[in-house]
Amino acid sequence: MKALILSGGKGKRLRPLTYTGAKQLVPIANQPILWYGIEAIAAAGITDIGIIINPETGEEIEAKTGNGDRFGVTITYLLQANPDGLAHAVKTAQPFLGESPFLLYLGDNLIEADLRLVLDEFTVNQFDALTLLAPIANPSAYGVADLDAEGRLIRFVEKPAVPPSNLALVGIYCFSAAVHAAIATLRPSARGELEITEAIQALIDAGKAVEARHLAGWWIDTGKKDDLLEANRIVLDDRLHPQNLGDVDKQSRIIGRVGIGAGTQVTNCTIRGPVVIGENCRLENCYVGPYSSIGNQVTLIDVDLEYSVVLQGATVIHIHQRIIDSVIGQRAYICSAPPRPKAMRFMIGDDCQIELCH
Question: Which residue from 199, 173, 204 is spatially nearest to 184, judged by alpha carbons?
Fold first, then answer.
């Protein structure tokens, strides 16, 4: 059994963060999103993993993630020159996959489910495709399952204007080698892509063994800011192990589960967990509230912040209103303005979003 992780998307919904980096490397609890998927696949016993990359961010992903040694797997990087759909990515990877059954995993997804249970059912029953479904509020943004009155799978529809159900395809699939022949029959959709839902439909129409199961547990597609923050909250709740490898002075208060990296200095601060703080940070006169992740080499001075993600190298100083529900990018600089003239001053890149309180 092999695995194929799709990490070639451009992350338009997370701009401007993804103008300068891959969306799959945006950190959740100070670890790249992509790595959670690799860890889950390795825990399920798959050690031969292909990762689809694109020409713009592929080198960054390969440099950051490496050859798989840190995860106990072997990683092969596969270049998809153009983002022509999920099925096109599988077609690109066919020489790597060969005749092996495989797990297809979207690199910006996080799930609670144990992949071993999914793989065991797929393998024991010798399915040609096994998909996972989850109820969702906005099914028009996803591939959607159409079930009959008995709950049996009839078809899949990609991003329908009128969804036949609220059951979206989770970004994790199991396939036999039969999917390659199905993909070979596809033509580009109205979106100009080879759709994985149409490949699954071709398998259904050909009488292949295709099944869908309801996902047990949570699933998050981290493609938008609010979803990224929610994923950060869940991971901090589930996986954070408190430790202090930094220097915390006697005036500071550490409450609850807090992780502090080596070389970080905390002076006269209150930190209320769950919170993770990276290495070589400087925090002075701050309140850092629950569900916050602070990356490496971040400076926070005279700041109140909670339920936020601050990326590596950012600086936030002398902000006198609490910062919440925020994602602050790498090397960003936020400070208070001089008292005169009383005005706001901005230098804002494309696709930024700023909310000001009166």
Answer: 199
Structure tokens at 8: 């070639």
Q: What is the pLDDT of residue 167?
A: 87
Burial 288-317 (b: 16+ CB within 10 A, else e): bbbbbbbbbbbbbbebbbbbbbbbbbbbbb
Round to whole Å and give the CA distance between 127 and 138: 29
**Could you tell me the residue range of the domain that residue 278 belongs to?**
240-335
- Distance, in Å, from the CA atom of 274 to the CA atom of 293, rounded to the nearest integer, reads 9
What share of the chain has pLDDT > 90, as a percent?
54
Q: What pLDDT, on a 0 to 100 scale, did the predictor assign at position 20?
A: 52
- Tally of domains in the chain: 2
Q: How do strand 48-53 and strand 74-79 relate by DSSP bridges?
A: parallel
Q: Please say which residue of 213, 235, 257 terminates a domain.
A: 235
- R_g (Cα) of the chain, nearest Å: 22
Average pLDDT over residues 291-313: 95
pTM of structure: 0.86
CA separation for the pair 235, 312 (Å, rounded): 19
Mean pLDDT computed over every residue of the chain: 88
